[in-house]
Amino acid sequence: MAIVKLKKITFCGMLSDKRRILEQVQALGGLHLIPLAEPPGQEFGAPKNTEGVVEALKYLNACANKRHQTKDATRFDLERITEEVLAIKAKFRELTDIYDALSKRIDEVEPWGDFQLPETEQLAGYRLWFYIIPKRMMKKLEDCDWVWQTVYQNNLYCYVVVVAESEPPENSMPVARTHTGSIPLSTLKTQRSQVELTLEDLQAERESLTRWITLMTVHFSEALDQADLAKAQTITRDEAGVFALQGWLPEAHTEKFLRFAEHHGLAVLVEDPDPGDNPPTLLDNPRQLAGGEDIVNFYQTPNYYGWDPSIVVFFSFSVFFAMILSDAGYAAVFGLILMFKWRSLGQSIKDRRLRVLAANTVFASLVWGVLSGGYFGYSPSEERFISALKIIDINDFDGMMRLSIAVGVGHIALANAIRAYRRYPSLTALASIGWLLAVVGGFCFWLSATTDNDGLRQVGIILPATGGVLLLLFSSERGLKRWSDLFWRLLDGVKSLIGITQLFGDVLSYMRLFALGLASASLALTFNQLAVQVYHALPGPGLLFSILILIVGHVLNLMLCLMSGLVHGLRLNFIEFYNWSVSDEGYPFKAFSKKGVR
After folding, report:
1. Phi, psi for residue 51 in degrees, rounded to 5
2. Per-residue DSSP letters for 150-174?
3. Of 10, 213, 215, 541, which has the fewest beta carbons less than 10 angstroms from its beta carbon?
4. 83-137, pLDDT tens digit by residue?
């Protein structure tokens, strides 16, 4: 859990060798270039349709059956093949929509049979009107004066045709009229068959174009490399036949670049960052915990002079998600999905990181679900062994509220402890200690009010009072050069104390863990009870309906839990925790290196 220490390196060489040196630096990789000149606002040789090439490659790579890769580039044209792939994708999507619409139309018309609507003159001015009527409502047609005929029926509905000159009034028929359209069933099936054949031809063309995936990837990467190289040539300092190239590099790679400079006869200067510099941020975490980096960089890259919250976010997100899910059965479902997708999630370094994060989250959710005794909304009876593992009652409102607040207090206290460590040896570190004492002491005072514990009450008075004094005296960074500075420091301390309302609100935000967990468990229980009621109310078909209620209900609840866990699990880290620990935003380290296939 660290931000990599960087060095600023400057190369100087002959201007005639600049392109060659830049090519070597790009091949070496690992250097974040610092502009020494303002780059012109233009594209540097990148493919005209960069997004289109990426989209085309994704579409071809998603094809199930791929052809043998072509290595001969004599007939290869990146732009032409990209246009062909995108045209196939657009046409395939259009025809798929048509196919789905035709299939839906066929399903609607098929019960009526294959017929051609006659012209009005052929029926002496009469027309056919179509109705799909539930069987339980067919008795309403017994006293009907209209001429009608049932042409088809199934277990639930009767398909009725009424012969009349004008459409029967709505109040004269049990249901509204059904629109069958004028196209015969056979014509609809013929059209669908033609669309299906065209889709097969397009799929064959797509499979044929997969032979170009490797060449597309190589040429596209080379084009991007050339664009980066062209841009790099514009940001060097060129004077009197000499060029200067500057960049940031990890301290551990210094020797490699020094050897590079010596080998190519370059003058080189390696420096530590100046106080006025703003280096990029390069995070370095253990491989098993690096998934936190991707979450952190997605929201806000920490400043180079700050600290790396990746590991804290890695574990706290998993715990928060588990508390929101609060069901071992749901956690097992997510675990099975992860096992099924495990291999496909190992295609890239980023995917492997997120895979480990997902596994940690599933494990935490499973443990929390077992401890809270939730299994798809059911709780095992007390005589079962697994019920002995239940030590948390999610329906205990007071207990869960205390636990949620305790989690929030611990999270924010940790944030302030880290900030205090980061500020040491500055006296402002004591202000962070003051916030830590205030949040812990406030929690103790609140607990004493609910448990009538005098010891906790005393702690709940002493700690916030001590914290308030520290905030009053050490929140300001002003120096004490004259007596008036003391007044301004105290004024800064008073302004800082206003933040107690924000501290209170941030701690209460963690109650969403309890609220969402309770909502998840309650919704699961509701679906279970509804399924049981339907099963007993409808003997026979009730079994089918109850199974459908369970499947649809729990799938819906799973999706809601997933969204709630992601959104609020991240929110508590990025809003509440960051507010007390991560202040300045940085920008990511981007290495000047080749992107080509190796």
Report:
1. -65, -35
2. EEEE-SSEEEEEEEESSPPPGGGSS
3. 541
4. 999 999 999 999 999 999 999 888 888 888 877 777 767 777 788 888 888 888 8
In the chain, the N- to C-terminal Cα span, in Å, equals 30
DSSP three-state, residue 95 = helix
CA dihedral 403, 409, 414, 420 (to 10 degrees): -170
Q: Are 589 and 32 in contact (CB under 8 A)?
A: yes
Q: Which residues pair with 9 in a beta bridge?
A: 247, 270
Sign of CA dihedral 577, 582, 583, 585: negative
Task: Give the integer Cα–Cα distance in Å for 24 and 149.
Answer: 85
Phi, psi angle pair for 405, to nearest 5°: -65, -40
* Angle (deg, nearest 10), helices 500-509 and 397-423: 130
Q: In angstroms, what CA-CA distances link 548 with 138, 333, 336, 408?
A: 27, 18, 21, 39
Is residue 597 very low, low, confident or very high in pLDDT (cuts 50, 70, 90)?
Answer: very low
Question: What type of residue is 253?
Answer: H
Kindly report the pTM of this predicted structure: 0.76
Q: Which of 371-409 are b and which e, b meaning 16 or more Cβ less than 10 Å from the residue's Cβ?
A: bbbbbbbebeeeeeeeeeebebebeeeeebebbbbebbb
Give the containing element (helix H, strand E) for 149. strand 147-153
Closest C-alpha among 111, 107, 104, 102 to residue 132 = 111
Residues contacting 452, CB < 8 A, separation 6+: none
Is 60 exceeded by the pLDDT of residue 262?
yes
- Please give the Cα distance from 318 to 365 (Å, whole number): 8
Pairing mode of beta strands 32-34, 6-14: unpaired
